[in-house]
Amino acid sequence: MMPTAAASRIDVRSLAPEQRHATIFRGFDDLGHDQWIELVNDHDPKPLQRLFESRNAGQFEWTYLERGPERWRVQLRRLIPVAAELNDSCCSGGACGG
């Protein structure tokens, strides 16, 4: 099931190449469980996908929305809750008081 709207859209085409990956990782790190961002790039971001696989294995879903030749769009969705969400329950730490 695809969420209805992107948490944000990150268009890195106007960024310097050395800023692109850091910007995208920061956007992903800010996502909550089942939220997603739309990435827009001027080339196939396959190398970035491999970086995500090594850095965030099992934590994301990568779906191409558009495949060039001038623009690539990817839906990048967080699959598992982040630690802050896990600790934001009445039973955080396993010590449920209620």
Description:
The protein has helices spanning 17-29, 46-55, 83-86, and strands spanning 8-11, 36-41, 60-67, 72-78. By secondary structure, the protein is an alpha+beta fold. The protein has a 4-stranded mixed sheet with strand order 1-2-4-3, covered by helices on one side. It is globular and about 35 Å long. The model has no long low-confidence stretch (mean pLDDT 85).
SSE map:
Layout: E1 8-11, H1 17-29, E2 36-41, H2 46-55, E3 60-67, E4 72-78, H3 83-86
Parallel strand pairs: 1-2
Antiparallel strand pairs: 2-4, 3-4
In percent, how helical is the residue content?
25-40%
In whole angstroms, the N-to-C terminal distance is 32 Å
Please state the CA-atom Rg, rounded to the nearest Å.
16 Å
Provide the CATH top-level class.
Answer: Alpha Beta
The third-level CATH topology is Translation Initiation Factor IF3
Quaternary status: single chain
Along the chain, the helix and strand elements come as EHEHEEH
Report the CATH superfamily.
TusA-like domain
Q: What CATH architecture do you see?
A: 2-Layer Sandwich
Share in β-strands? 25-35%
Based on Cα principal axes, name the global outline: globular
Total discrete domains: 1
What is the overall number of helices? 3
